[in-house]
Amino acid sequence: MKIGLLFVGQGAQYTGMGKELYDNSPKAKEIMELAGDEVKAWCFEGTKEMLRQTHITQPCIYTVTMAAYEALLEGIKNRDSKIWDSIDIVGLAGFSLGEYAALTASGSITDIQKGMEIVTNRGNWMNQAGLGADGEPRGGMVAAFGERQAILDCVAAVKDGEILQGVNFNSPVQTVVAGEKSALERFKVEAKSRKMKAIPLSVGTAFHSEMMAPAAEKLQNYLKTCDLKAPSYKLYSDVTALDLMADLSEADRADESKVNEYIAEMMGKQAMSPVCWQDIIENMVHDGVECVIEIGPGAALCGMVKKINEGLLTLHVEDMESLNHTIDTLAEHINA
Questions:
Q1: pTM for the full model?
Q2: 286 flagged as catalytic
Q3: Confidence (pLDDT) at 336
Q4: Cβ(90)–Cβ(234) below 8 Å
């Protein structure tokens, strides 16, 4: 069975995430112990308001996602080695923050603690970039539902010189808009007048917009020191929707320093570029993917996938129920 693995991004957080896996999966527990007591406390006991703070959200979601990934591998191998031998992982993709979990799962980020350090810095820098002179968040994000060009036309109509742009192209009927708070308020009013639904997202600022330029520069310079490796799986880039390594020549891929610099530049760009999610899923289907497994808290990515391609089998792993259901379903399809 040809499978695509999807790793969740910011906005999927909730109080108690990862606790069941921690209690029942030795591998998941190992990952969460590596993250430390503070991150565990945030995941298991953090309030909704606490968990939406960028510098807290990012290390928490990364940790739970990697714990879920390890629990999935452990669960499959413990259940029946035939399942693992019958799976063909065509590629990986991560939604925004989730791209760092994908980089870790593919071996580009070589260990969990390095990944934790990266996403913690990323969260801090993105949080700082999104603050105004008063120390309060100056931006946000809204999920808009309707035809994409109509949403972008609405953005253009109310932008009025402020930061406001389409940043996540999630499905044929959903585009996320990010920008300054006043511009977002104008957008919501205009969207309503055009009979488009617009729902504020539980995030701390305007991710993937030009507001993130200071964070993108810091992140890129820092990642150049992180010894990033070429991914062992095809990894679909949020920025291009194509193989992350597509623009690096074979000769340069053999040079570890050039690989590190290239990935650092791409991931720096990712912080302030739109996420081409619909195109990623369509490219996965083109490459033969029959089933996607969403890994990490929530199941929002599965919902997006169904709006892009109803024929794909969608599974997810965030707790023991979803983990067992995913393994059972894979076993059924493989043994059918």
A1: 0.94
A2: no
A3: 66
A4: yes
Q: Render pLDDT for 181-236 as a digit per residue (tens, 0 to 9).
A: 999 999 999 999 999 999 998 777 899 999 999 999 999 999 999 999 999 999 99
Confidence of residue 145 (pLDDT cuts 50, 70, 90): very high
d(CA 204, CA 207): 8
Q: Which residues pair with 164 in a beta bridge?
A: 179
Tell me, yes or no, if 208 is annotated catalytic. yes
The pLDDT value recorded for residue 10 is: 85
Q: Which of 25, 96, 106, 171 is catalytic?
A: 96
Q: What would the mean pLDDT of 138-147 be, rounded to a whole number?
A: 94
Phi and psi at 200, nearest 5°, equal: -60, 140
Task: Please tell me which residue in 106, 171, 208, 322 is annotated as part of the active site.
Answer: 208
Q: Which CATH superfamily, name and number, covers 139-203?
A: Malonyl-CoA ACP transacylase, ACP-binding (3.30.70.250)
The topology (CATH level 3) of 2-130+212-335 is Malonyl-Coenzyme A Acyl Carrier Protein; domain 2 (3.40.366)
